[in-house]
Design brief:
alpha+beta, Immunoglobulin-like, eight-stranded mixed sheet
């Protein structure tokens, strides 16, 4: 398998569950921070259960590196679906592990937190974050970012997200 692809919502939920379960293990110990790379594919399947069948792509394109930009070693790429603006409310996403560029992508209904028909009447933007520590909640120097500057439409193809420094 080229890399484990899971929805961002499912991955964060799985880590939260594991964190809660790990908190009760050991006497007077503080649970260690869990990361996705600590989990094997079988672990993720047990936690997440059967994954939905692949659905038709809502958006397709590629993530590329901007001129002179180098990919940080070991970084994780988060593809994010947002409403109203490039920094708006997150309504879906996925983690793409060990990417090489240019990286083709597709976003399907299984990558969204809500049904895709709720997106048809609202402006949708796509963003990509190349995160060095693998934690989508933190930002640090050297992380790379990209976002569409105009809204995308369902079924749109050939979207290009150009990663540059933040």
């Amino acid at each position: 398998m080229e890399g484990l692809r899971v929805s961002l919502k499912a991955a964060i939920g799985a880590l939260a569950v594991l964190g809660l379960l790990g908190a009760g293990c050991g006497q007077n110990s503080t649970p260690e921070k869990l990361k996705l790379e600590d989990l094997g594919e079988t672990d993720m399947q047990k936690i997440l259960g059967p994954q939905a069948e692949k659905t038709e792509a809502l958006y397709t394109g590629q993530v590329v590196l901007g001129p002179g930009v180098r990919s940080p070693q070991g970084a994780k790429l988060f593809l994010i679906v947002r409403l109203e603006s490039p920094k708006g409310q997150m309504v879906g996403g996925k983690l793409l592990d060990a990417p090489s560029f240019p990286l083709p992508f597709e976003v399907s209904g299984g990558d969204l937190f809500a049904p895709s028909d709720s997106l048809s009447s609202r402006p949708v933007f796509l963003a990509a974050r190349m995160d060095q520590d693998g934690d989508p909640m933190t930002h640090q120097p050297g992380d790379l970012e990209a976002a569409t500057q105009a809204p995308v439409t369902i079924g749109q193809k050939k979207i290009v997200l150009v990663l540059s420094g933040s």
